[in-house]
Design a protein that fits this description.
12 strands; single chain; Beta Polymerase, domain 2; 2 domains; alpha+beta; three-stranded antiparallel β-sheet; four-stranded mixed β-sheet; Arc Repressor Mutant, subunit A
Length: about 270
């Protein structure tokens, strides 16, 4: 991160607090120990000790990492610093791509059929959940995360990447077994249909190129009577793809209806 100006080398006991004050004043709510030592001249141990004495105003994102966040005005309801204040700085420090995705992205785009208990983040490597106050960050791995279609999150406190509506609906279907199942995913997708653009959908399909996910998403588009989106997606499928169950991991009876167009076994009912 960019270090706030105005720091000289100092070793007084208030150096870390002064650094935190200047970060807050400049709109920065996340920083590493290296940022603090560079700005204050304190050693790593002294910087950590001073930061620890600031109590709940400053906390580590995770006990195994040396990245700290500052609690700002209006954060009381979250029990800690709001994730949209520091998420971009956090991943810049980690050196990995990311974006807010899945149900969390859908909520940002205006679809929130159920209350969210976690913030869902897509990145390129496995990470342990992060619990900060009442916020739980859960990470989902996508090897080509850096190629995904993303945009700046509208209304975020600080710069933050969020999946486009088109990437969001694709990911929702892809990760459905881990985020409540395909029926819940369908509920989330419905309000997003009006936001989807054909050109953007094509770019997502070319990037992702996952046939089974496209089959399931095409089936949902047809079920929701969105003819144009279904027709666009169908062009990216091979002639006769392998049959796939609509609900991955759910029981699949031999008597379950079969949709020939998408080669999808309807083992889950979508209302």
């Amino acid at each position: 991160m960019e270090i706030p100006s105005g720091f000289g080398l100092t070793f007084n006991r208030g150096a870390a607090e002064n650094f935190v004050d200047k970060c807050s004043a400049s709109g920065r709510y996340g920083f590493s120990v290296d940022d603090a030592t560079q700005a204050t001249g304190l050693g790593e141990r002294s910087a950590k000790d001073q930061l620890r004495r600031l109590g709940k105003r400053v906390t580590r994102v995770a006990r195994w990492q040396s990245f700290f966040v500052i609690k700002g005005e209006g954060d009381a309801a979250f029990g800690g610093s709001r994730y949209d204040r520091w998420l971009d700085d956090y991943f810049a420090w980690l050196g990995h791509p990311y974006y807010v995705g899945l149900h969390s992205a859908a909520a940002i785009h205006g679809s929130q059929p159920q209350a969210l208990q976690i913030i869902q983040i897509v990145t390129d490597a496995p990470r342990r959940d992060v619990l900060l106050g009442r916020q739980r960050l859960k990470f989902f791995v996508k090897s080509r995360c850096n190629m995904a279609e993303v945009q700046d999150a509208p209304g975020a406190f600080a710069p933050m990447k969020v999946s486009t509506p088109e990437t969001t609906v694709f990911d929702l279907v892809r990760y459905a077994p881990r985020i409540g199942g395909i029926a819940r995913v369908a509920e989330t997708i419905r309000p997003l249909l009006q936001l989807l653009k054909t050109a953007s959908l094509k770019r997502v399909l070319e990037i992702e190129n996952e046939v089974a996910t496209m089959q399931r998403l095409g089936f949902l588009f047809e079920k929701m009577e969105h003819v144009n989106l279904a027709s666009t997606l169908e062009k990216y499928l091979p002639d006769r793809p392998v049959w796939v169950p609509l609900g991955s991991g759910a029981k699949c009876e031999s008597s379950a209806p079969r949709n020939e167009r998408w080669r999808v076994v309807e083992n889950i009912e979508i209302v």
